[in-house]
DNA sequence: CCGTTTAACTAACAATTGTTAGTTTTGTAC
DNA sequence: GTACAAAACTAACAATTGTTAGTTAAACGG
């Protein structure tokens, strides 16, 4: 059974996603949890802590994914496929929290914001290095690596919204379709 | 010279993008315009009107782009290329306002929200029809059309954030790189 | 049972919010 | 220069916000 704290975080993720962090107030959150607003403070210290933890939980997930892939002995293209696979899995499992990565981090205070963006940048850098390797080995064409990085990450970052509308698709097939789309493109 | 109303809208777009609609207050907006908060109401009727107009201006831009392409006699693949080209142009010209399309529409009241989403859905439908045509003609492989649509639109919708970091790239080259990335993929 | 901790409640606070009323200044047409 | 409209200002409002204080009820170990 889930701790009250986790229940609060889950509801917060749901509401922050649907309405945005700033537009969600503690009374709404409390009602969703089934409690009065003041009672929330027996389990959390303040509103921003919720956003902070939700975002950081996800950021650490991706940091782990990246460092696992980096320290593996896979080929560059396989590394890329593994990153995509992880991303799809996380999106399916933590749809609400993942959705916050897109825009809600701007509401973090300076310190946690900096920390969050550092992790985000590290992830992007790791991704870029792997893409670069894929080009060097000749597996990928000599496309602008920043464009490739941007297009790939965009697709992955929007995945949660797509998944919300197509929950039926099974994750494995989804992952394969996306990988194929990104790697071989649209043209026959 | 720009009207005061337009100046207010421009600053609103900038602040809404940077901080979010809910996190931006009328006193901040007023200061950015160089005026006291109450004076804004000589030019606008309320805060939400600003968000509404910013979003609707963009939505109508895309609606126009789509209907122009649809009524043209271009080949399906050329139609797609034209849509991408328009999207890049708009992104470069209206970066701030375009960025609001991503997440800030949730703060619209029910009525304008419905209207906005209708236009958005129409655009997506038009896009899907063109992609379907590209597959039927044999120009594109038989990929899941919803995946192709989703991946393409994701890349376009995130473009504003990429452009903000790479303002140096000229739009035409950007458009060509993105088109190539989407259509021929990464693999050599 | 009892004593202690945990977690719920009510009530209220200080701050911030969008907006309005009323007034003064600025600009323009004659 | 006077009259009128446009647009700025000051001051204040009602509502909403996150959070705290103080208190009561539930849960639990001995």
Structural class of chain A: mainly alpha
Radius of gyration of chain A: 18 Å
Q: How many strands appear in the DSSP assignment of chain A? A: 0
| Rough outline of chain A | elongated
Helix content of chain A: over 70%
Give the termini separation of chain A. Answer: 50 Å
How many helices of chain A?
9
Strand content of chain A: under 5%
- Greatest interface (CB-CB under 8 A), with counts per chain: A-B, 41 and 41 residues
Task: Please state the average pLDDT score of chain A.
Answer: 95
Counting copies of identical and different chains, the oligomeric state is homodimer
Q: Characterize the main sheet of chain A.
A: none
User: Would you identify the regions of chain A where 5 or more consecutive residues have pLDDT less than 50?
Assistant: none
| Series of secondary-structure elements of chain A, N-terminal to C-terminal | HHHHHHHHH
Please render the helix and strand layout as text.
The structure is a homodimer of 188-residue chains.
Chain A: H1 4-19, H2 26-33, H3 47-70, H4 76-93, H5 95-103, H6 110-136, H7 145-157, H8 159-165, H9 171-184
Helix pairs in contact in A: 1-2, 1-3, 1-5, 3-4, 3-5, 3-6, 4-5, 4-6, 4-9, 5-8, 6-7
Chain A binds a DNA duplex (30 and 30 nucleotides) through loops.
